Amino acid sequence: YSTLADELILSSGGDAANECCTIARLGSDVTLYAKVEKGPAGDSLISNMRSEGIDPRFILQADDCTTPTAIVVIKPDGEHSFIIKEGKNYGLLPEDVDLDVIRSARAITAGSLYSLGNLDKGGIITIFQEAQKADVLTFADMDHDNYSLGNKIFEDLYPHIDYLIPRVDEAVYV
After folding, report:
1. What is the largest CA-CA distance in the chain?
2. Disulfide-capable partner of 116 in 85, 120, 145, 154 (CB 3.0 to 4.6 Å)?
3. Can you name the residues that pair with 142 across neighbouring β-strands?
4. CA separation, residue 65 to residues 75, 92, 96, 150, 158 (Å)
């Protein structure tokens, strides 16, 4: 069966992209580190970020990557649900991140812990350590532990996060 919608909006998203758009709209210079697929989905994300005033030069496009895709259905009462196509090989590797760029920033944010792929397994600690050594503010939010990394995986990272912004259920988990 079909459901008629009052409105349909196509946009780029995800925690990191959404955070970058918000910060750019507030007037700050923003650069996004991400990995997307080569092709229309990746091209669209890069184009959208550029149109938001975000520097896209560190958005890497990879042949072996498929970009995660989500459809968010928002009902008239505000309740929403997600239909998600999981991506593959879209996580950055530690060597994808230029630490000199990190050290020269005013602030960095990790959007989101538990969704960073290989960076969740140690690379994000190095990035945040280097940022703090350079007096760069560090922010991080969280996602659910969908890959069963465990609630202790970020214990060595927490001292290097200036502002941790989890939801209540995520805070209870860790």
Report:
1. 57
2. 120
3. 113
4. 32, 11, 14, 25, 30
- End-to-end Cα, the chain, rounded Å: 41
> Strands of 137-142's sheet, edge to edge?
107-113, 137-142, 163-165
DSSP SS3 for 82: strand
Which of 105, 159, 116, 119 minimizes the C-alpha distance to 141? Answer: 116
CB-neighbour burial class of residue 98 (10 A; exposed 0-12, middle 13-18, buried 19+)? exposed
Q: Considering the entire predicted model, what is its pTM?
A: 0.85
Dihedrals φ, ψ of 90, to 5°? Answer: -95, -5
Cβ atoms within 10 Å, residue 70 = 11
Burial (CB count <10 Å: 0-12, 13-18, 19+), residue 95 = exposed
CA distance 104 to 167: 29
Angle (CA) 33-139-79 rounded to 5° is 90
Mean pLDDT of the chain: 92
C-alpha torsion angle, residues 122, 128, 129, 130 (rounded to 10): 110
Query: What CA–CA distance (Å, rounded) separates 97 from 117?
Result: 14
User: For the range 66-69, what are the long-range contacts, defined as Cβ-Cβ under 8 Å and sequence gap of 24 or more?
Assistant: 66/37, 66/90, 67/36, 67/37, 67/41, 67/42, 68/14, 69/41
pLDDT tens-digit readout, 40-52: 989 999 999 999 9
